From TrEMBL:
NCBIfam families hit by this protein: ant_ant_sig
SUPFAM superfamilies: SpoIIaa-like
The protein's name: Anti-sigma factor antagonist
Provenance organism: Rhizocola hellebori
Highest taxon above the source species: Bacteria
Annotated signal peptide: none
Family under the similarity heading: Belongs to the anti-sigma-factor antagonist family.
Length: 143
């Protein structure tokens, strides 16, 4: 018999040459939301030149996890820090592909460089439409 209990979420950071690697493992869901948000806030506050989120060991990602990644990307961009993901596979890659946001997490570099789509553009405007339905205030249009 195999143990089907969920893997606990862990988030480890390592900074080298100004680039912070944020390694996620386990399940990024509602139970892990505050841990993820606190880790991202601490990394952004440290002002690295770039953030790479490694999803290699992440076994599960739900809508809350997607939201965590979107918020992390937005917060990093506000601080002028590029945030990318790597190592998405299996169900994690499927979720990011189906939601349409995977292209927004391209190569590391400055926030929203030319050629790298914003989250809204990568989702075909879905996120902006969703925000309007939820009553979120309008922001300047994405380039």
């Amino acid at each position: 018999m195999t143990d089907s209990s969920p893997s606990p979420f862990t988030c480890n950071t390592q900074t080298r040459a100004g680039v912070t690697l944020l390694r996620l493992a386990g399940e990024l869901d509602l139970a892990a939301e505050s841990t993820m948000n606190n880790a991202v806030a601490a990394v952004v506050a440290a002002r690295p030149t770039a953030i790479i989120v490694d999803l290699t060991e992440l076994g599960f990602l739900d809508s809350t996890g997607v939201r965590c990644l979107i918020v992390a990307k937005r917060d990093a961009e506000k601080a002028g820090i590029g945030l990318t993901v790597r190592g998405a596979k299996g169900i994690v890659e499927q979720v990011l592909t189906i939601t349409g946001i995977l292209p927004a997490f391209g190569e590391a570099g400055p926030a929203s460089p030319q050629g790298q789509p914003t989250l809204n553009a990568a989702s075909g405007g879905f996120l902006a439409r969703l925000g309007r339905r939820a009553g979120w205030p309008r922001r300047n249009p994405s380039p």
